[in-house]
Amino acid sequence: MITLYHYVHCPFCVRVRMAFGLLKVPYKSVVVPYDDEKTPLDLCQKKMLPIVKWEDEKAQNESLDIIERADQENKLQMDLIKDDEKMKEVTELLNHFGGPIHSLCMPYWIWTPEFSTSSREYFQKKKEKKRGPFNNLIQNKEEFLRKLYPLMEELTSKLEPYYKSSSLTIFDIMIASHLWGLYVFPEYQFKEEIHAYLQKVKDQCGFDYHRDFFSDEKEVGI
Ligand SMILES: N[C@@H](CCC(=O)N[C@@H](CS)C(=O)NCC(=O)O)C(=O)O
């Protein structure tokens, strides 16, 4: 069985979990503490997740490379990510979403069961270098919420009902995994269309964000 090393809050890790769910790839789930530098360094010489250890024992990082290897029947239309123009458009959208989403959500993610006292301190110290004190992020939440509004409108205009498509593609997994963290921000109210979209992606992927918090069962999709 393959092993997925991941952080629950990380959108790139969520990408792989969603894709494995949709592709019905069974895997062993290992949630790595954020302050554990050794595990990712031993596996891929880089402190970055997600990492998959395949059945041949080879370890691989980079979410899209992992999904490409898993998607042997091209169910997710992985050729889309080779189309520079389309990929640029989606990447830009994700970058615009990423700033406000991460500023809103990081101060709350650290209080989920994924974190211990030491991993919380490690994460907060690292992220505050770039974003400033988490307390200020929460106090300035209106600014980030305002930035999200036009982006949600833009995304809504592109849903057909999936992102510029009548069926789910890798772009939907990239988008939904980036937006998913907002469900952890208290009282975030998704537009109806976006909530319905995210729920459709969730259903198709059999995705359960909180699974690792509450299940002792480490094998997924068996
Ligand atoms: N391009 C990578 C990005 C993965 C990535 O940025 N992972 C972050 C978590 S969201 C990470 O591992 N950060 C570790 C750290 O900064 O300590 C992918 O698509 O897999």
Gist?
With 222 residues, the protein is an alpha+beta fold.
Description of the molecule:
With 222 residues, the protein is an alpha+beta fold. It folds into two domains: 2-72 and 208-220, 3-Layer(aba) Sandwich (Glutaredoxin), CATH 3.40.30; 78-204, Glutathione S-transferase Yfyf (Class Pi), Chain A, domain 2 (Up-down Bundle). Helices cover 55% and strands 8% of the residues. The chain is built from ten helices and five strands, in the order βαβαββααααααααβ. A five-stranded mixed sheet has the order 4-3-1-2-5, with helices on both faces. α1 (11-23) runs parallel beside α3 (63-70). The longest helix has 26 residues, at 84-109. It is globular and about 50 Å long. 32% of the residues are buried. The model has no long low-confidence stretch (mean pLDDT 97). It binds glutathione. Glutathione (GSH) binds next to α3.
Largest sheet: 5 strands, mixed
- How many strand units? 5
Helix content: 40-55%
- Write out the strand line-up for the largest beta sheet, numbering strands in chain order: 4-3-1-2-5
Distance between the termini: 10 Å
Mean pLDDT: 97
Low-confidence stretches: none
Question: What's the SSE blueprint?
Answer:
Elements: E1 2-6, H1 11-23, E2 27-31, H2 38-44, E3 51-53, E4 59-61, H3 63-70, H4 84-109, H5 117-131, H6 134-139, H7 141-157, H8 170-180, H9 192-205, H10 211-214, E5 219-220
Parallel strand pairs: 1-2
Antiparallel strand pairs: 1-3, 2-5, 3-4
Helix pairs in contact: 1-3, 1-8, 1-9, 4-7, 4-8, 8-9
The structure holds glutathione (GSH).
Glutathione binds at residues 7, 10, 12, 47-50, 61-64.
